[in-house]
Specification:
The structure holds two protein chains of two kinds. By secondary structure, chain A is of the alpha/beta class. Chain A has 19 helices and ten strands. Classes of the chains: A alpha/beta, B alpha/beta.
Chain lengths: ~475, ~290
């Protein structure tokens, strides 16, 4: 392998994976080399599988791995062999003229719609490459300065506008309306992903793979910021909630079992030692009384942090049997109780829809006002907080420069077991602009919670 | 030392003969696990054929399957080996009646005869081809993982009284996990990783057709399409391959020749096992008009 540059590429690829957050050990590196040596090299997918089997040990990291792999071991170079052949054909025939004009755009969109309707993956990959090549080129002044933009290409072709036609086609196949919309959305989302991947591939060709791996790759879903999530990501995250809750519950049960032995029961131990002549061979322990918390969740559901609040609520309610009682309130500038939406065994999507619908109850004027929300809470729901309860506030502490009413929060946090504040913003944005993170953080300890991993860790720690 | 499979394609073909339809990634990874002699960790939702893969490898390679079912509280004595205390006690009592010395007895009671081998040791000591299936490894406690490390990396077991026993022939190890708990890095590092997911419609149709050959091809097509539609819904538990096959058997038993909305509604309980999932499916697929 040495001398051909393969080792260099292999090492660079591994470095990029480590940079993207995958923990690749030296042992796994050697395994990957052994696996590659055991395979014929004639299929790209085999190489991908070999790398995946030896290096990726968590399914959540697989999308990141695939993106890095596509950059370092691209599917094709430039326009690819097929397009090159086509171009030479065209050169033989009449002049090709401008490859990018309104007519070409229209023709391309029709072709795209056809491929999307048939869900033909091979063809869609080809179209994605063609789309970036034709509509996403950003000519530069000199060699090495030109670049490619998935954004430009997507703006020009705007596949999202094809949704309605795609839905109509799917409806004709006998799908129901919601189904058709979901399927269409998913296909277009996937195609968008393919276009972005192709742009990355082309940029990697010109500027080097390292450049792309450093700037253009998105973190894996459990490390993705709630505030940076797109619609497709939000759906994916929602699917992760129940498995996450299940993992947490299993881990907690196991840890509780490990700590099941309570303090020493002295009398029983001494009594039992009589049979062994007064030597306490076995100790007896009092059973441990598990204490369960009453949790009160108060969450900001204004636009910017709504999805974060929903995830946390879902996770808390999925783990409800770990708590004695859970009550949830939402607010924007007014407080509204939403506990009743979380029926046992309720459907996730329904709960989300109900929550979204009830958002209007949480707002009077629609501008986030933490001070007013806290005052209202102490006036109307003071009974929710007792000496056994814990308070969890979710929000970015951005209160539109209104009166903060720190005293109301202090009153709420007084005389209860615990209080935390989860902030979905990165710590370095706290106290910038209208953020009152510092002021509130003095009353209630504030924790940064930007992604699913941090959320899982936090919930595990408080239980 | 014999090889398990000679190439990914051959692995796919032989698994197919063994009644398991593997996609290219599964076949390649299975081949690699055999070629590199490394354990294969298979993860994925319940009912996608993780355990079945191990059985298929055993069938394809004509090997014996040794299975270790994991559960909470599994310990060394159940996984590795145990001394047969009762038999040892009998031997000691018998020695007291006779006149053999304690030194002889002591040596004798820690001999092969009194050793009860459990799955891990059995798999390592077998001279023939062996597939070792460690099922649902995520159900065990963390300590058992530590126990597995020696077995999986060096294929040897150390018994203080007998010394270290090394594998005469390395078994093909398959570990399955439902990912209900994160496995330790040390264990994962020693394994190849394969994530099995729900198959695409084409492959699922083949699987259903091969498992339930009597079912009409058209109905099987309808069934697979419906299962695909169900998986696109946001359900608590999406129907697995095992459930599609069960559904196919149900349709066959009920002699349903056309899977229309009413038939789906009547038999939905076979594939969806949460009330809220069934409600959602009925509503979203508009089964009751």
């Amino acid at each position: 392998m040495s001398g051909s540059g393969l080792v260099d590429r292999h090492i660079a690829f591994l470095e990029a994976l480590r940079g993207a957050g995958l923990a690749v050990s030296l042992a796994e590196d050697l395994d990957a080399v052994a696996a590659l040596s055991a395979l014929p090299w004639d299929r790209r997918e085999d190489v991908r599988t070999a790398y995946a089997a030896t290096l990726v040990k968590k399914q959540a990291q697989r999308p990141t791995f695939d993106a890095v792999f596509d950059v370092y071991y691209p599917r094709m170079v430039g326009e690819g062999a097929a397009a090159a052949a086509e171009r030479s054909d065209a050169a033989h025939g009449e002049a090709t003229g401008v490859r990018d004009n309104a007519e070409a755009l229209q023709a391309f969109r029709e072709e795209l719609l056809e491929a999307l309707a048939a869900d033909d993956q091979e063809r869609l990959l080809g179209l994605a490459a063609e789309m970036v090549g034709r509509f996403g080129a950003m000519p530069g002044r000199g060699p090495g300065l030109s670049s490619w933009s998935a954004y430009t290409a997507l703006q020009r072709v705007s596949p999202a506008e094809l949704t309605s036609q795609l839905v109509a086609g799917l409806l004709a196949d006998g799908r129901t309306e919601e189904e058709a919309e979901r399927t269409a959305g998913r296909r277009i989302g996937r195609f968008t992903g393919q276009v972005e991947a192709d742009a990355r591939r082309r940029i990697a060709e010109e500027k080097g793979a390292e450049h792309v791996a450093n700037v253009a790759l998105r973190p894996s879903i459990d490390r993705l910021d709630f505030t940076a999530a797109r619609r497709a990501d939000v759906e994916e995250m929602r699917r992760q909630i129940y498995p996450l809750a299940r993992r947490l519950a299993t881990r907690l049960t196991q840890e509780h079992h490990a700590r099941r032995r309570g303090p020493l029961d002295f009398r029983r131990t001494v009594r039992a030692s009589m049979s062994t002549g007064g030597v306490p061979l076995t100790t007896h322990h009092r059973p441990k009384r598990p204490h369960r918390t009453e949790l009160v969740v108060l969450c900001d559901v204004s636009g910017s942090v709504a999805s974060f609040a929903q995830f946390t609520l879902l996770l808390v309610f999925a783990l409800r049997d770990q708590f004695q009682k859970v009550r949830a309130f939402t607010f924007i500038d007014h407080v509204h109780e939403v506990t009743h939406h979380f029926r046992p065994g309720a459907d996730v999507a329904d709960v989300m829809a109900d929550l979204a619908a009830s958002t209007s109850h949480a707002a009077l004027w629609g501008r986030t006002n933490y001070g007013r929300a806290f005052t209202k809470f102490t006036e109307e729901h003071a009974d929710a907080l007792g000496p056994k309860s814990s308070l969890l506030v979710l929000g970015d502490a951005r209160s539109n420069y209104s009166d903060l009413h720190v005293d109301a929060l202090r009153e709420m946090a007084h005389g209860i077991r615990n209080a935390w504040w989860l902030n979905p913003e990165s710590r370095r944005h706290w106290d910038t602009g209208d953020s009152a993170a510092g002021t509130y953080g003095e009353v209630v300890p504030m924790v940064e919670c930007r992604n699913l991993t941090q959320l899982g860790d936090f919930v595990h720690d408080i239980l | 030392m014999t090889t398990w499979f000679s190439s990914p394609d051959e692995a796919a073909a032989r698994l197919h003969d063994g009644g398991y339809l593997a996609d290219p990634a599964t076949a390649t990874t299975t081949y690699l696990a055999g070629a590199l002699e490394k354990p294969l960790l298979v993860e994925g939702p319940a009912g996608v054929g993780k355990t079945e893969l191990a059985k298929a490898v055993a069938r394809a390679a004509d090997a014996e399957l040794v299975r270790l079912q994991c559960y909470e509280g599994l310990d060394e004595a159940r996984a590795l080996y145990e001394w047969n205390y009762k038999k040892q006690l009998l031997r000691i009592q018998a020695a007291q009646d006779g006149d053999s010395s304690w030194a002889d007895t002591h040596d004798e009671i820690f001999a092969e005869e009194f050793l009860l081998t459990r799955p891990l040791l059995t798999a390592i000591r077998r001279p023939g081809a062996t597939v070792l299936l460690i099922d649902e490894v995520d159900k065990t406690d963390v300590e058992v993982e530590g126990l597995l490390l020696e077995v999986l990396s060096d294929f040897q077991v150390t018994i203080p009284e007998l010394g270290t026993i090394e594998a005469t022939r390395r078994p093909f190890v398959v570990l399955t996990s439902n990912a209900s708990r994160e496995l330790s890095e040390a264990l994962k590092r020693r394994c190849l990783y394969l994530h099995l997911d729900y198959p695409d419609a084409e492959r699922e149709l083949e699987i259903v057709a091969s498992q339930v050959p009597d079912l009409d091809r058209r109905v099987a097509g309808q069934l697979v399409a419906t299962v695909g539609r169900l998986r696109e819904l946001e359900l608590k538990k999406a129907p697995s391959i095992a459930e599609s096959v069960d559904w196919a058997r149900t349709l066959l038993a009920l002699e349903i020749r056309d899977l229309d909305d009413k038939a789906i509604d009547d038999t939905l309980g076979v594939v969806l096992k949460h009330v809220s999932d069934q409600d959602r499916a009925v509503r979203e697929l508009r089964l009751r008009r």
